[in-house]
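User: For documentation purposes, I need each entry recorded in a consistent format: the amino acid sequence on its own, followed directly by the corresponding structure tokens. There are two entries in this batch. Please keep commentary to a minimum and don't merge the entries.

Assistant: Recorded as requested. Entry 1:
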Amino acid sequence: MPDEEVLTEPNDTEPDNTENNNEEETDMPETTGKLKRSALMHFLNTAFSTSLTSPDWYLIGKDVEDMSVELNPDTEATKNILDETSITDRGYEPSVSVDTYFANPDDGDIYDQLKDIAMNRKTDGACRTLVLEVLVDKTTGPFDAWVEEAIIKPTSYGGAQGGVRIPYTISFSGNRQAGTVTFTDKVPTFTA
């Protein structure tokens, strides 16, 4: 009889192990939990083209501690003589300030482009490219993504001791497309 008790004890612990395994599976990132900041990625097409044919994506983030897309909503409230309020919604004028970009020739095309725009005072089409936003809010891809035309403008160059900085602003300029992204060796591929 004691042998039967010993035999039943391991069987009783097996379901507990299964429950522990299920708990481990729930420790995986969930779509409803708090996302880390690294889950929202922004890429620039360093080919400075608005074509998706062969983009060369640069992931913004090195040396950047804080970066947000400012939506800059454009609304206006007016009140008529009947004390009724109406709202005019003109949409958004989104932009991003990347204040901590350090000039680094090892960054390749993004450095070359920012240097060229700033030092040669480039405007218009020479500053136009694509920005790709990817939200990694699930454990496997494809991931939700949006691509939009943007104007990249350095706001200054130089800075304090520690390195030459070229802070820049990304002004979203329209033709936004929703789609998905898959990654191969950390390189995104956008599908509309």
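Entry 2:
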Amino acid sequence: MIKQLKLFTPIFICLLFLDIYVKINLPIMPYRYVTKSLVIVSLLLFVGYNCFIKNNYKDHLLFYGLIIFYIGDFLTVDHINNITFIVSIILFLSGKILYTLKFTHKEDFNIMRLFPFMLLCFLYVAFLYELIFHNLKIYFIPVTIYFFISLLMILFAFIRKGVVSNVSYYTVMSGVLLFILFETVLVIKTFYHDILYQDFLIMFCYALGQYLIVIGIMIEEKNLDVKNNIIA
């Protein structure tokens, strides 16, 4: 796996910055469809090669989740209208659900440890709603459901701590947090106001977030220090 990562990582980073350059400097048709596809397809090939060789069912969830994210992301390359926006939300929700299933485990955890984290998540959502609520209109229900699934995903990523190795845990959490940053910028751009470097932030945080989640899951190992199946 380490040898594969050393080969794959520079290729992925080059493809990501190529896509960013094309987005900022070149016409969407046909260049962006090509470069954006290359970024996610490279991840799909990496995950597909590893998970199908190992024949690990839960790794298949990651692969199928990436496919769904790719389709949803592809729909928003050119423009966003009511139909493509709703379809892309549904697809992103489906991909997040598969990721969340991948984050689940059978170990017990201390519910009290979740309260500060859940409070922080609530404040985050409340802040976003304060900014965008009056502009949601027909999108209120789908965006609310999207936020709910996002919180579930980050919650299940959070409770992996102590169950998997620290490297896997912090890699996945970094990816999830970048994913949340991507969504924050996208939501503010769509329903509130343009912000500085928004196109760069959206593309960089989304792609790097996906990369870190994928790598964190692929290197996942059970934490040998877990005792009595309880997370301290």
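Summary note for entry 2:
Helices lie at 2-25, 28-54, 57-75, 82-103, 114-136, 140-158, 166-191, 198-218.
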